[in-house]
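Example record for the data management plan.
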Amino acid sequence: MKRPKVRPPHPWSFPVPLRARLDNGLQVLAFRRPGQYVVSAALVLDIPLTAEPRDLEGVAALTLRTLDEGTRTHPGLSFTETLERDGAALGGTVGHDAPQLFLDVPASRLSRALPLLAEAVGEPTLAKADVARQQALRLAEIEQTQAHPGQRATLEFRRLSIAERYRSARPAAGEARTVATVTAADVQAFHARHYGPAGSTLILAGDFEGDPLQQADEAFSAWTAPGRDVAPETPAPAPRACLVLDRPGSVQADVRLGRFGIDRTDPAWPDLQMGAYALGGAFLSRLNRVLREERGYTYGVHLVNHPMRTGGLISLQGSFRTEVAAAAILEASGLLSIGEEGFTATEIADAVNYATGVTPLRYATAEGVAEQVAALVAVGLSSDYVDAYAAALRRVTPASATQATRQLLDGALNLVVVGDAGTVAPPLVDAGWPVEVRPFEGEPPRPDVRWRMAWFLLGGAVVLTAALVLRRLLAVLPPGPDDERQPVPAGWAGAGRTTPARSPRR
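Corresponding structural encoding:
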């Protein structure tokens, strides 16, 4: 049976935005997307994590996570209740390059929801109790990460691959030692010093009912905080290291194998992306075909290429049975070196066809457009990059992909293994790998921090329960003559951090 021929895709290009720069310096990009009746907004703040003091790392994340706990205009729960009445969902994430806030709202409510986003960044209360609750949640999050083998492996791989002196070598939301020292005064000072419209970008995407640039101006023109310019860092790779975190008796080993890489501005980026896809991006890529299908070492393995503003991380990620983990690592390192024959024309053609063919689908929604532009703006690129990248992909050849991939991965690689060191480490040492073994258990939080976490979580649960009971009682009362509440479209509810932290795309 012959495979049906796939026709080439229709010509496609990334949408062109309406542009404006407000008097306060805020850049606004508005993408009209007909039929997208839920508008997605993204606000990218020009605050790289180099703005954090070394002993207060995590203050940027605590600041962002506390923004929706109340504002001067809408204190406390009234802020999230107002968001809910407008059917809006507000969320955000802090990356090493820039904090990003995301707002999803029906197009008919955009003019009501945008001022709430402006309030969150311009006049948050950042109350002591709210900061303390977010601090307790972050400390609990850190403890969970330290106990999760896969997450711990990813964390340690970043630490091993980037030189220690750089902020990007450490978690974006901070470590337990520094997060535990952050106070509400520190959060308030960080917000006052760094949150401002100059250098920030507001991205809007959807089927707008009015003029989105005018709506943005009306919502954000009063935001006049000066902010402060902070230069982003240019990280460098750390010396090669091979670390095994010992979990005696573990039946599987979580592996990260790779090195410090390149970013989107490198001319070799499209070639590396296609090489990475051929190696470990598709289900029947080389790594998965050999390690899963032929050897049966794993349920699946991937090659992840993560760009930063400058540089990046490229790593094989997978979990393997303990007794075959060392053999899998040694075979994987050979596969990553590509070999003399390089990539075939079929491998690269499949990679290019997939990457270019899926692009229109990825940006078919307003959310897809807003998220992608936010990810690009955060690293200093514009929306024009999407079309330029697609054109560059079509110029990738087997030879260029082989050269770019081999240049990065044919050599000494960093390795992190979380598993039984007694089984995994000896074969690696025999093969000449400079293995260091450490215990898996991280330093537990101080007892006083554990108690604070417990009390704040309990207190938060009590307050939330009381608020829900009160709202239920108020809901049965008839509205007063001044009640301006409007019906909300079915299925739209939720505010606060109901939208999870989003992962920037390519």
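Summary line stored alongside the record: The CA atoms of residues 407 and 478 lie 70 Å apart.
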